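Pilot study result, target chain (326 residues):
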Amino acid sequence: MSHPAGPAIEAVIRTEALTKVFSSKSGPSVTAVDHLDLGVRPGEIFGLLGPNGAGKTTTVGMLTTRVVPTSGRAWVGGVDVTADPVATKLMIGVVPQVSTLDRALSVWENLYFHGRYFGMGAREARRAADETLERFRLADRADAEILELSGGMAQRLMIARAILHRPRILFLDEPTAGLDPQSRLALWEVIGELHADGQTILLTTHYMEEADQLCDRVAIMDHGRILALDTPATLKRSLGADTEVRITPDGGRVQDMAHHLERFDGAQGVSATDGVVRVYLRDGKTGLARLIAHADAGGFGITDVGITEPSLEAVFINLTGKDLRE
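Predicted structure:
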């Protein structure tokens, strides 16, 4: 399935049928990314949203030269990633899931030597390290050892280091995974500031709120394929619903209730995951009472009802029939 991003000249990241198959001597091969077509525009935050194993990290690996594609092509900043990996690396910054900070160096030294590695002179690297620490509110930790940093501080430092050499494109692979809510919100603020400065960012996440809050456009992935690609607002509107109703049936009759509620005339979609039936209503104000009456008429008892606005997770469930956490 193709999801063009407008004229190719507008895309700072572009892929055509990008595919990665991992072979195994002990079992069948695994297609991690399956004929991926996408385009990322300059200055936008583009999100790859999907569960673990969807192919997000493998996609980033191919775009950042760490993983060699099985087939297809990818361009970053107009450069063919496979044909010229050195030129590609010079124009990107990467924050992987696992920390790559040098524990033998201080906070400041991690930045300084990163600048030197990317060709900065000593004076320029010192100035860049000082300015970047101030920008990321880490100046008071300049002499600290890496192991002294909290998880949120270490992640801020990873991003600070990744943008020190002023890359054209920044890749963030699950940047807030494992962080507490306060640290996550603080990192969202940092990412938002980079976006305001015009930084192009490709972000992978399995947090629906993160994609909704940060991203200009989102590609929903599963099993290596893009299922939908648009702005968060447009993706949520695609459900054709203004209300998501979550019903916990009495006696665990989840599938039976879901099949029954599919016949409700106000339902735009029905799914059943984690012991809960989700119903997407066109008009929640007038439809909720009728929906409950419809369930009661079918002989279904209800132990709990929750009401919310449709989310990106609802879009994913509607597309796949499963929860993002599965």
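One observation from the pilot: Residues 13-231 form a domain with the Rossmann fold fold (CATH 3.40.50.300). A full batch analysis is planned for the follow-on phase.
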